[in-house]
Design goal:
This protein is an alpha/beta fold. The protein has helices at 16-25, 73-84, 110-120, 134-137, 153-169, 246-252; strands at residues 4-8, 30-36, 55-59, 65-69, 91-98, 125-131, 138-140, 146-148, 177-183, 192-193, 201-207, 231-237, 257-261. The chain has two domains: 4-194 and 241-261, 3-Layer(aba) Sandwich (Stationary-phase Survival Protein Sure Homolog, Chain: A), CATH 3.40.1210.10; 201-237, no CATH class. The protein has six helices and 13 strands. The protein has a nine-stranded mixed sheet, with helices on both faces. The longest helix has 17 residues, at 153-169.
Amino acid sequence: MAMKILISNDDGVFAEGILAAKQAVEDLANVYVVAPDKNNSSVGRRLTLFKHLEINSCNLEDGSSAYSVTGSPADCVVVGTDYVMDEKPDLVICGINHGVNISCDITSSGTVCAALEAVSLGVPAIAVSLFVDPKTAYKQNENGEWYIDYDFSLAKKVLHDLVLKIKNDGFPEGVDLFNLNVPSNYESEEVKITHLSHRMLDKKVIDNTNEKSAEIFNYPLEENQNSDNLIMIVSDLVKEYEKESDGYALIVEKRPSLTPLSANMTFESLKDW
């Protein structure tokens, strides 16, 4: 019997990365795509319970069929597993995310938390992200307009090889999901097995009283917002990482990072505490 894979993401059903993920594994399995109708980055594992969701059939850029859902990435995994597919998938793939997902900060990631939702449903999962190097990815077209060149070629290759190994050998004992990060501007194609680094982002709060940050606040206000009381949480990537961590492999060594994870976050023992 053919392997069945459900693909979702947090960037939206029409994001380039979800098509790349489908293309990476469609020779290995029957693939179903169920994803949010719009971008849902950094929503964590939010679930929409006892509220209406709208589901619509659509077509990806290559003409293949997919479903869009007016919900979160975790919602889409539940909908795909329990409603769209006749049977549970053998594997859930979340991504290919447009951006990095490393360190203990992954619990805010819609991509990784959709994979965690799959695990809670009894399905092993892979969260996969493309770390876009701004030095090489930002390009101009013939009209001088800037765009981001998402080069998924290495990410697709690594994802394909990983799924093929899982298909042949299964998941390693004790591993519920893999968190895979691939750099767009890489120095090595060799995948490194890593652990989560301590954190990914340095966060701070700014307001609109500082001239240097004024431009950031030039966006439409939501209803009932007071322009005199606006603040914003902003972040930068951490610069230093431990040597065997995902951040070190991805950002310092510029090679793919594969982190095996368990959904059970219980510490082993407190007997000596």
